[in-house]
Design brief:
Blueprint: H1 15-45, H2 48-51, H3 56-64, H4 71-76, E1 78-79, H5 89-100, H6 103-114, E2 128-129, E3 132-133, E4 136-137
Parallel strand pairs: 1-4
Antiparallel strand pairs: 2-3
């Protein structure tokens, strides 16, 4: 973990450093091969010259979709079940609350409900679940 570390006893004084180094080592050691394989596979499919024009944030948007929530698109592509409908009082309260949210709060809500904080490039109509296209559902 560090030079001479095998001869250093872990004490209350250096415990935090030891834990940080151990966690970093375990995390990095566990995914190095997988990460390298992912990158190699990615470049087999996508020419590296095409990717090089994007910075990290732009590439994330191209791959994962937009981070800006279009509330009307979200609402228009929502499915209601269990007796709920667009005019139901609870649903009106829900959308009123979401309208007051800033974009970060909307993204967090989307993350909580769907497991992803990004909207597909094509909008909420293209939202996908683990088994294919899946509309946002209340």
């Amino acid at each position: 973990l560090k030079s001479g570390g095998a001869n250093t006893a872990v004490t209350e004084k250096n415990k935090k450093e030891y834990i940080e180094r151990m966690v970093k080592w375990r995390v990095e050691r566990g995914v190095v091969q997988q990460t390298e394989a992912l990158v190699r596979g990615f470049y087999e499919v996508v020419d590296s010259r095409l990717v090089s024009v994007f910075d990290a944030r732009e590439l994330e948007l191209v791959i994962a979709g937009t981070a800006e929530i279009d509330l009307s698109d979200w609402r228009n592509n929502t499915e209601y079940r269990g007796g709920y409908h667009d005019g139901h009082i609870v649903i009106r309260w829900f959308w009123a609350a979401v309208e007051r949210f800033n974009n970060e709060q909307r993204l967090r809500l989307l993350q909580f409900v769907t497991g992803t904080s990004s909207v597909p490039y094509e909008g909420f109509a293209a939202l996908r679940g683990s088994n294919g296209l899946r509309r946002f559902c209340i």
